[in-house]
Amino acid sequence: MRIARFSIDGNVAFGAVEGEGAIDSGDLVLDIIKGIPYTDFELSGTKVPLNKVRLLPPVLPNKVVGIGRNYAEHAAELGNEVPDVPVAFFKPTTSVIGSGDAVEYPSFSQELHHEAELAVVIGRMCREVPRERVKDVVFGYTCANDVTARDVQRREAQWARAKGFDTSCPLGPWVETDLDPGNLAIQATVNGEQRQLGRTSDMIRSVEDLVVHITEAMTLLPGDVILTGTPAGVGPLRVGDEVAVTIEGIGTLTNKVIKRG
């Protein structure tokens, strides 16, 4: 099931996406969900066209945990070794935006990069999750763009500013709850030109590996997000560019880059 979060007439709700086609095609409708989708829920039967609402980030995470250098070719293209253990970092909630929202080019960077990623959405509070129970705590999957100020990342040992600035974490367009993440095509385009193309089967550590590793250290809450790393092909974004992340079985996350201020 595809579950979107949206606003209409000043109200925010979740809805199940029905139909096939592009977001603005008029072929998709939302069946509004009663309550929140992390527990047992009912569909209201009240339906609205998706192209008549504003899509919001599909979840409001308490935290976004990013994983760096989880694709060998990406590590190599930046001159890095594959780490012995997953490299984890945080993106704050203020970095999260939805499909159609603008990425604001930060004033302190001259080298902004796109990073297409599969995002894992957690569905229940969990800690110290054993591998065999990972599927029980995962709500679903969405597209992410781990937008990175690459020049800042190179000169600052901690990645808080390079990866945590406002609007640096586009998520969307919705969460797909029925998906095997093991071997999905993932790509990024900029102004329609393909930049990244890979498969999630190329990840060094799987979704199961990452959930086990992260929950050894911290409690994850419903709506929290894990970014699983990016394939090779990362590259520059400029003001005016339109960047799109497409993942097989989920859909396309699209954002425009604008000047901050």
Can you describe this structure?
Strands 1, 2, 3, 4, 5, 6, 7, 8, 11, 12, 14 and 17 form a twelve-stranded mixed sheet that branches. The chain is globular. The protein contains five helices and 20 strands. 11% of the residues lie in helices and 42% in strands. The longest helix is centred in the last third of the chain and has 9 residues, at 207-215. Strand 15 and strand 16 (193-199) form a beta hairpin. The mean pLDDT is 96. It starts with a strand and ends with a strand. The chain folds into two domains: 2-55, SH3 type barrels (Roll), CATH 2.30.30; 64-259, Fumarylacetoacetase-like, C-terminal domain (Fumarylacetoacetate hydrolase, domain 2), CATH 3.90.850.10. It has 261 residues and is mainly beta.
Major sheet:
12 strands, mixed
The residue-averaged pLDDT reads: 96
Number of domains: 2
Q: Tell me the CATH superfamily of the largest domain.
A: Fumarylacetoacetase-like, C-terminal domain
**Secondary structure: number of strands:** 20
Low-confidence stretches: none
Helix content: 10-25%
Radius of gyration: 17 Å
Oligomer: single chain
- Total count of helical runs of at least 4 residues: 5
Keywords, separated by commas or semicolons:
single chain; Fumarylacetoacetate hydrolase, domain 2; 2 domains; five-stranded mixed β-sheet; 261 residues
Outline of the structure:
One of its GO terms (molecular function) is hydrolase activity. By secondary structure, the protein is mostly beta strands.
